[in-house]
Design a protein that fits this description.
Elements: E1 4-7, H1 10-18, H2 31-34, E2 39-46, E3 52-62, E4 69-73, H3 87-99, E5 102-107, E6 112-117, H4 118-126, E7 140-141, H5 145-154, E8 158-159, E9 175-180, H6 186-192, H7 195-207, E10 210-214, H8 219-233, H9 240-253, E11 258-265, E12 268-278, E13 281-289, H10 298-312, E14 317-322, H11 334-341, E15 346-350, E16 354-357, H12 360-371
Parallel strand pairs: 4-5, 13-14
Antiparallel strand pairs: 1-2, 2-3, 3-4, 5-16, 6-7, 6-15, 8-16, 9-14, 9-15, 10-11, 11-12, 12-13
InterPro entries: Acyl_CoA_acyltransferase, FEMABX, PG_Glycine_Bridge_Synth
Keywords: Acyltransferase, Cell shape, Cell wall biogenesis/degradation, Peptidoglycan synthesis, Transferase
Family: Belongs to the FemABX family.
């Protein structure tokens, strides 16, 4: 028998999230306020005793000129992914969004498949035969993840392959880099940094780099060097209004949900970054740095301050978010991977994003549109 699913209040959604150690920042009610082009709803799963046992933030985006929607559940929903009868959870969701006019559903199960230690990633980068991280033997395989993938396929879900050479999908990254904090003192985390990181942190301190927390009024300083970063790293920048909306929406829900950090040297902002927190999971969300004065190492300084603050907040993991899957020297994102590897954490592969076409014709048309963007 399937669970009963219905729309729930933001308060009930947030109460459920607060009772869990880790939930994606894209599965809290306020994330819907960050995405005004999508219609957001909080969904709740109820058992036979009418007890709330799962939640999900679903974002609905209309097709141009049609009253049909793509339903997106980023890095969710928050359900029991180890349950053997997964259809009890997923079938009610499909029926609900279909009734709301959805032609296709995309979700991202927050389930880890494989992990590579920092040493394994460094060895893979140094190996000229290794072209992609996915083809390198993992340090650990998470039991049950590949069984879950098989069950999803049998239920009619289709796995979305990472698009392009860098391993990033059109939605959320399948490969991320994380530093485990649980059970480790800050001194142990510091000892896990590689020699270059520790040297650079000391160099920044000696040079007089000051890392401070910023406020709403400092988002414009962050944005100025974020645009410079976008040009250098070849990505399309979001508008300033997006970060202002993030700040207002997320912090209205929880004062620690979003923080802004700025690394200053002699009054000049050289690096800036946003940090997001939900429970025991902390993310380095957006980063920016100028090409000026790189010798004073502001990037290492700002990351170490954020990691230290995350540890003080009781974080179980510090998440650097997406990394490239491509290990070839010609890949412009390889330098960013090397930087993250220096933190001493691990590369993590999630199950990725999955689609369920409710209307195959419209779903195929969307696929064709996305492939031509």
């Amino acid at each position: 028998m399937s669970f009963r699913l219905k729309a729930i209040s933001r308060e009930d959604h947030l109460t459920f999230v607060r009772a869990r150690a880790a939930v994606s920042h894209m599965q809290v009610p306020s994330w819907g306020d960050v995405k005004p082009d999508w219609r957001a709803e909080s969904l709740g799963w109820f058992d036979e005793s009418d007890r709330l046992v799962g939640v999900g933030l679903v974002l609905m985006r209309p097709l141009p000129k049609l009253k049909r929607y793509l339903a997106y559940v980023p890095e969710g929903p928050v359900i029991d992914w180890a349950a053997p009868d997964l259809e009890r959870w997923l079938d009610p969701m499909l029926a609900y969004v279909k009734g709301r006019g959805a032609f296709s559903v995309k979700m991202g199960p927050p389930v880890v498949a494989r992990r590579w230690s920092a040493e394994a990633v460094k060895a893979a980068i140094a190996d000229p035969r290794a072209r992609r991280l996915r083809d390198v033997e993992a340090t650990t395989h998470e039991p049950g993840a590949f069984d879950l993938a098989d069950r999803l396929r049998r239920l009619g879900w289709q796995q979305t392959e990472p698009a392009g050479e860098d391993g990033f999908a059109a939605g959320q990254p399948r490969y991320v880099f994380q530093v485990p904090f649980a059970g480790r003192s800050l001194e142990e985390v510091q000892r896990g940094l590689n020699q270059q990181w520790r040297r650079n942190i000391k160099k920044a301190e000696k040079a007089g780099v000051k890392v401070v927390r910023g406020g709403y009024e400092d988002l414009s300083a962050f944005y100025e060097i974020y645009v410079e970063t976008a040009e250098r790293d070849r990505f399309v920048p979001r508008p300033l209004s997006y970060f202002q909306r993030m700040w207002t929406a997320l912090r209205a829900e929880d004062a620690d949900r979003m923080r802004l950090y700025l690394a200053r040297h002699e009054g000049e902002v050289l690096a800036a970054a946003t940090m997001l927190t939900v429970g025991e999971h902390v993310w380095y969300s957006y980063g920016a740095s100028t090409g000026r004065k790189r010798e004073v190492q502001p990037n290492n300084a700002i990351q170490w301050r954020m990691m230290s603050d995350a540890h003080a907040l009781g974080a179980g993991v510090y998440d650097f978010r997406g990394i490239t899957d491509t290990l070839e020297e010609s890949n412009h994102l390889l330098g960013l991977l090397r930087f993250k590897v220096g933190s001493g954490g691990e590369a993590v592969e999630y199950l990725g994003e999955w689609d369920f076409p409710l209307n195959k014709v419209l779903h195929k048309a969307l696929d064709l549109y996305m492939s031509r963007r």
